[in-house]
DNA sequence: AATTCATGTGAGAACGTTCACACAAAAGCG
DNA sequence: CGCTTTTGTGTGAACGTTCTCACATGAATT
């Protein structure tokens, strides 16, 4: 319980050199002869010297710490991403400060403020507001390296890594259509931020507002859903779109039960993320439907339990850990070179087939059908 | 992209006061008259002054940051715990540095070292070595506030929060026995650290080595399993104990398949944690057994999917988030008062019944039976 | 009028590093 | 031998705070 922390000055005194010299060998920068180096290291070892990173950071202007702000660290989606980030951070000998925003702008602002106060060398953010995000623009303006993950912010030109949500939803729903499904319900958050509405997105043909990349992934997945219908020449029905509006399994379950119990229930469900998937599973259990006989299911994001359900649940699998790793690497490179052109990356998820999709023989026969 | 960071000196100059005075009002410590206070605050606002926490930390000797080291942040168990910690940290306006140990001593040592380098005000650790843990003893010796979570270290007298693993496993397995099960398999990690062996733990009657609290929770759950048998006057059979030895679903699944396919399969399975539970579910699927008709199931740790499986899976539910919150609060209090007696807390999990346990009518009838 | 006392303020030294610079000694070069 | 260059070390000023003093005021008390 000794309070005496040994400093460079102590080491220098013991080794009979100046603090500057001792500093040079201990911080290894600048010249130092072999003999002096030995002497200083010996003294440091004997005194149990440990450099004070605070003082070093103060003068060097870098903390070797990066910050992360995500929606909710306990969701499997973010937890894996963070694991990926953490691995890269450890490999680079960097600390990792983590905060959650609970998908609320004010908490996200607080988080960013905390990270800036801690003088992180850079931050990885999953922004909850993709249109305004004044605090992120300010942080970027202030020159702090930033990488966006899963979502992008309109007009904010920083590195980012996301998924091809539109394309993979399009392909996944396409698989459902090719399996003969004609009434496919979409269960998605589709929160009303940024002025996007279901009407707006459905109004053009083919559907696709130009700024779709700056909206929540759930909107992109809706677009993919609509495009798949367009591809197949089938008119989508707006009563099959469950707009959950909040990021909640409970609400998703409620909505899903409603649609499953309606007079004209869907033959398949497509969920836009893991939270929705859990809600839908609860709904399926509540109405007592069997998969895939009564209802087919395709979920965005592959969760552990989907593999050992009987039958297994088809999923669009996102490389979550890899996303985290790449985000961290992008950030490291950005820190090393703040001026280069920002990079915008998109990963491609894949459809994992497990048997939760029933093949329906349509009158005109199955055209296409999944690979398996 | 301006590099000019405005300091207390700038504010002081603009407000025509000394840096000391400006420091007093901006850091609010010491005297400052109302007029001066107003002047300084105005100047600070106009210059957009933001205090440099690095410099403050250097001199004050506190960083307002706490560190956490857990096994793996992407496991639902730790993810929830961290969420709980994070909530309390945010409320206390503290930063949170997170690292994973992957249950390996050397990585844990690295993590602790990182945290000490970052000069955290305290740390919460889920130790992977409950016997030696020299680095934890050293950190404690060095006076840094520490709270252990989920596991304790022998002879290390610090605050800790765990679960009553022995008691709740004993109760849970007791429920299985009361339901008439006589061949109950335990699937648990039971890694061979610290010299504990199945033989040793089974050798006394009633079972229970005195230092059980300083072993992994899986050993404690084994003890609960044995005690439940002892309570019921039934001799446990060592061939029903699956020692997975690593923290891996895959291996757990393999072991579980073996025992399910043996000549004398169990009628019920008891898993010691979430990882084992996932493995067991995969095994049940692989052998094509139906729950609860062919095999009953009781899992330690309640995971999301257990609720919407058909039937639901009985679980011993651990208050994970609450554990995190309490750990963080313990740490805050320890930081505030480093000298008081360490507190050793145990939370009590509860058995959530969902229908994965079949009632077996024994020849002598069901004696007792669950509450429901 | 002299002494206390609370209330403010400022000068300057910490905190533990790094960094710019000066400078001495040794070495290279004509 | 004088000159530059290299190699190595020390001095002292940063970095941006907080903290310990000293020291003014002016009011209250003796």
From TrEMBL, chains A, B:
Q: Which UniProt keywords apply?
A: DNA-binding, Repressor, Transcription, Transcription regulation
Q: Which residues form the HTH lacI-type domain?
A: 6-60
CDD domains, alphabetized: HTH_LacI, PBP1_LacI_sugar_binding-like
Please name the PROSITE patterns in this protein's record.
HTH_LACI_1, HTH_LACI_2
The record ties this protein, via InterPro entries, to: HTH_LacI (IPR000843), LacI/GalR-like_sensor (IPR046335), Lambda_DNA-bd_dom_sf (IPR010982), Peripla_BP_I (IPR028082)
- Spell out the Pfam families in the cross-references: LacI, Peripla_BP_3
**GO molecular function annotations of the record:** DNA-binding transcription factor activity; transcription cis-regulatory region binding
Q: Does the keyword Transcription apply?
A: yes
Annotated coiled-coil positions are none
This chain belongs to the protein called Transcriptional regulator, LacI family
């Amino acid at each position: 319980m000794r309070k005496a922390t040994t400093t460079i000055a102590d080491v220098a005194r013991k080794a009979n050199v100046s603090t500057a010299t001792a500093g040079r060998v201990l911080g290894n920068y600048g010249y130092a002869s072999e003999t002096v180096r030995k002497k200083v290291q010996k003294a440091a070892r004997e005194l149990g010297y440990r450099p004070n990173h605070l003082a070093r950071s103060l003068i060097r202007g870098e903390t070797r710490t990066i910050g992360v702000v995500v929606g909710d660290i306990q969701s499997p989606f973010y937890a894996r991403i963070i694991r990926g980030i953490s691995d890269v951070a450890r490999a680079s000998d960097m600390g990792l400060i983590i905060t959650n925003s609970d998908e609320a702008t004010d908490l996200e602002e607080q988080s960013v403020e905390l990270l800036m106060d801690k003088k992180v060398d850079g931050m990885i953010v999953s922004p909850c507001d993709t249109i305004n995000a004044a605090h992120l623009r300010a942080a970027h303006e202030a020159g702090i390296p930033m990488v966006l993950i899963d979502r992008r912010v309109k007009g904010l030109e920083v590195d980012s890594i996301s998924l091809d949500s539109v394309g993979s939803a399009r392909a996944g729903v396409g698989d459902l259509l090719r399996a003969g499904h004609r009434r496919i319900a979409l269960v998605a958050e589709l929160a009303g931020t940024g002025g996007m509405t279901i009407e707006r997105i459905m109004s053009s043909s083919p559907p696709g507002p130009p700024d779709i990349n700056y909206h929540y992934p759930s909107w992109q997945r809706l677009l993919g859903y609509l495009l798949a219908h367009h591809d197949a020449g089938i008119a989508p029905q707006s009563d099959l779109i469950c707009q959950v509006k909040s990021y909640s399994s409970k609400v998703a379950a409620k909505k899903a039960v409603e649609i499953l119990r309606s007079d004209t229930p869907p033959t398949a469900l497509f969920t836009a993320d893991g939270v929705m998937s859990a809600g839908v599973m609860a709904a399926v259990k509540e109405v007592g439907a069997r998969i895939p006989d009564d209802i087919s299911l395709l979920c965005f994001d592959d969760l552990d339990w989907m593999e050992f359900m009987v039958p297994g649940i088809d999923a669009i699998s996102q490389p979550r850990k890899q996303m985290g790793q790449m985000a961290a690497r992008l950030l490291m490179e950005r820190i090393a070179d703040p001026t280069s052109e920002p990079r915008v990356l998109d990963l491609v998820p894949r459809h994992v087939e497990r048997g939760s999709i029933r093949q329906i023989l349509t009158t005109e026969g199955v055209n296409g059908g999944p690979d398996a």
